Amino acid sequence: MKSVLIIICSHDFDINSCDNIKILNDYMKNSDIEVDYCGISSKNDFHNYKNIIQFKYKIINPKPQLSKICDFITDYKSNLNYDWYIKTRPDIKLLENINFDILSNNAINARARVYNGPAKIKYGMSVNGEGGYKNIGDCHYAPTEHGIILDDMFYIFHKNVIQKNAFNKINFNGREVEWVHTQLFNSRNIPLNIIGIYLYLTKWNAFSGNINI
């Protein structure tokens, strides 16, 4: 049985996202895994989800999301011994279960925000899908992969990636957008594995898009 730590990370734990948290938890309960939850919020609002999940870790951190998760993993690294880790946000509604058997043990597994390459991946883009991000684009066919920017909303990584120091603390002043995440992983020699994840971003009314399909 796999052990998984789900890290829910956001500026706040909006009570209007309770349905998303319940759906996520229902998927996890139907999987062959043991799950714990970590909540990282800028304020003490963990109680908004107390009737749905129990947090093993409750971290108040006012920094942006990448700094939040890097601080947490660095500070608790000696105590973390899960097989897999999922980073997500309260405003994400998962629309299908996660197949851990297809994931890379040595990479960040996520959708792409920008993709240039030959792959055809259903739900592999964080843009282009129905809804608010439909006309943004950023998926382009090319003979070889290059210029990939990882989506930062929802990604999955193995404990091997933590041991490679992918999430050591950072000192960054500015907006921690997708490009910053990708630059950090590239600088630390962490591969990016683009996968399909069918989800709906409720805050911005946006579904996953496809890569070259």
The oligomerization state is: single chain
| Helix fraction by DSSP (H/I, runs of at least 4) | 10-25%
Q: Alpha-carbon distance between the termini?
A: 34 Å
Question: What is the alpha-carbon Rg in Å?
Answer: 16 Å
Q: Kindly identify the CATH topology.
A: Spore Coat Polysaccharide Biosynthesis Protein SpsA, Chain A
> How much β-strand is present in the residues?
25-35%
Total DSSP helices? 4
Low-confidence stretches: none
Mean pLDDT: 97
Tally of individual domains: 1
Explain what this protein looks like in three dimensions:
It is a single chain. With 213 residues, the protein is of the alpha/beta class. The chain has a single domain, classed as Spore Coat Polysaccharide Biosynthesis Protein SpsA, Chain A (Alpha-Beta Complex), CATH 3.90.550. Helix content is 18%, strand content 35%. It has four helices and 13 strands. Strands 1, 2, 3, 4, 6, 8, 9 and 10 form an eight-stranded mixed sheet that branches. Strands 5-11-12 form a three-stranded antiparallel sheet. The longest helix is centred in the first third of the chain and has 12 residues, at 18-29. The model has no long low-confidence stretch (mean pLDDT 97).
Compile the SSE list and pairings.
Blueprint: E1 2-10, H1 18-29, E2 33-41, E3 55-60, H2 65-76, E4 84-88, E5 92-94, E6 108-117, E7 121-125, E8 139-141, E9 146-158, H3 159-163, H4 178-187, E10 192-194, E11 199-201, E12 206-207, E13 209-211
Parallel strand pairs: 1-2, 1-4, 2-3, 6-8, 6-10
Antiparallel strand pairs: 4-9, 5-11, 6-9, 7-13, 11-12
